[in-house]
Amino acid sequence: MRPRVSVQDSALRNGIFSLRIDPVRSEDAGLYEARVTYDMEVQSCQVELGVITVTISPPGPVIENEPLLLSCNSSHWARLVETHWFHNGHLVPTSRTFCSLHGALSIPQPAMSDAGSWRCQLRYSDNEIISATYNLQILGFDGPANPMVYAAAGSAAD
Questions:
Q1: What 3-state class would DSSP assign to 102?
Q2: Contact 122, 130 (CB under 8 A)
Q3: What's the rounded Cα separation, in Å, for the pair 84 and 121?
Q4: How much is the pTM?
Q5: How far is CA 13 from CA 19, 38, 45, 114, in A?
Q6: Least enclosed by CB within 10 Å: which of 23, 70, 110, 123?
Q7: Which domains are assigned to the chain?
Q8: Tens-place pLDDT, residues 115-129
Q9: Which residue has better confidence, 96 or 22?
């Protein structure tokens, strides 16, 4: 896993041992065990790392009015019961504009106003609630509905 993994050496003298993974990938999910030996004494602990991902389809830049699908997936073992999506902190109701499908959100015609923070919240059959955020950027024209530019003959126009 190198170079994404580091051990926090500075805290070892105080009995604190930790592992840092940056960035975390989906395949990093699983059970981790740490063992430290000091003067013939062995200390150990186990930690399970769960990973949640938010992906966008099609991949690449999102173009205004071109359909997109935001998907939210987790390594959690229980059955997914409920998915909620939030845009800039506000709950997104299912409508013609936003269609929620088992962990995914379809936006048939994204607008410039759909850019910003999207958070998915997954609730599982064991009542575990997991969430992740995706910052959506949309390429498009953010100006007047009927743009018209006037330029004097012989000058430049942008």
A1: coil
A2: yes
A3: 5
A4: 0.75
A5: 15, 10, 17, 49
A6: 23
A7: 5-49 (no CATH), 52-139 (2.60.40.10)
A8: 999 999 999 999 999
A9: 22
User: Token pair for residue 2?
Assistant: 């190198």
Residue with tokens 């498009």: 140
Residue 27: both structure tokens together: 């395949």
Share of the chain above pLDDT 70, in %: 97
Measured from the Cβ of residue 97, the count of other Cβ atoms closer than 10 Å reads: 14
Contact 39, 49 (CB under 8 A): no
Read off the amino acid at residue 85. Answer: W
Closest by alpha carbon to 84, among 68, 72, 97, 96? 72
